[in-house]
Amino acid sequence: MIMKNIVLLCVLCLTICKSKAEQVQTSINGELASLILNREIIDLTVSGPLDARDIDFIFRQMSKLEYLDLSQANIVSYREDGGGYTYPANEFPQYAFYSSQTSDGKVSLKTVLLPLSITSIGVRAFANCKGLTDIQIPNSVSEIGSRAFVNCSGLKSLNIPSSVKKIGSRAFEECTGLNSISIQCSDAEISDFAFRECYEVLSITVTSKIPLDLNSSKYVFQGLNPKCILYVPRGCTNAYNIAPQWQDFPKIEEK
What is the pTM of this model? Predict the structure, then answer.
């Protein structure tokens, strides 16, 4: 009798686990809503073509979603009905997980694996997604839009790959949970207030031997923790000590 109960319990647990996770492969963009019957799942993996409608479905209809793996998906172009806005291909859509009506982000999200084929992350794509603790920016991304991750207060660490050529204004503003930032790019434009009020950051590591030019950008690092250490490549301390805004770091060390 005890063994029978144990078997039944195992079956029940397996059923529950399956109900909380799902893998879906799309054949055409715009069909995701028709493929997902259980909208209470917390773990979703999607491969195949997607467009802004599919992303909007995930945002509005999957209120408990915590883990989202889109690494094998690809974003295709979509034009709104009536000749409206056209969402570009290979861009994670603007306002993807942010409501301009309520200013709410998708707070249930904790981890997102972005499509490995995207080249840009749209304006306010993850704004106010306060539950987000882990985001991996693919090496294919060349531009991070304005306010793309503003107020993502749950993020702990951030790696900006060498492929990035532009970080939009206020892109990571008020990411108050960040402890460390790694900037791998060597010729990127960093816009106004990009990392403003990230006041818990204790280390920023840069790999470029030549400091990124911040002459035309306002207060990129305004409000950082006064104990934050800027780590630079060996032999580059002097260059950073005289570079606009980089020179404002109280402590610069080589590594």
Answer: 0.91
